[in-house]
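Record type: monomer structure entry
Structure origin: computed from sequence
Chain ID: A
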Amino acid sequence: MTLEKENFKDQGFRILSTVIDPELGVDLVGLGLIYDVEVDETGLCTVTMTLTTMGCPLTDLLNNAISDALMAADEVKQVKINLVWEPVWTIDKMSREARVKLGVFY
């Protein structure tokens, strides 16, 4: 898969929309967990993200799935996960489709 660097953010989000949270059955982008995706000239792809809770037992599994998905892009040589807690994740960050799938109505 070849991605132009100037379009990498959009395509990176598209790639990460294939990574499913195994507990919730919804993709990480739809859950609103992915805040940013960037690739530099050396091929280092940095993903800024959060989790629904601190101490999530699936952190390693999700990190591996994110790395595997992004490494399929020709420009990506290495993936770095930048796990942040600000801004705090809330259900407001979820897409409409994710809220419907999880039965979250408000």
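Annotation 1: Residues 5-92 form a domain with the GMP Synthetase; Chain A, domain 3 fold (CATH 3.30.300.130).
Annotation 2: Residues 35 and 93 are 10 Å apart (CA to CA).
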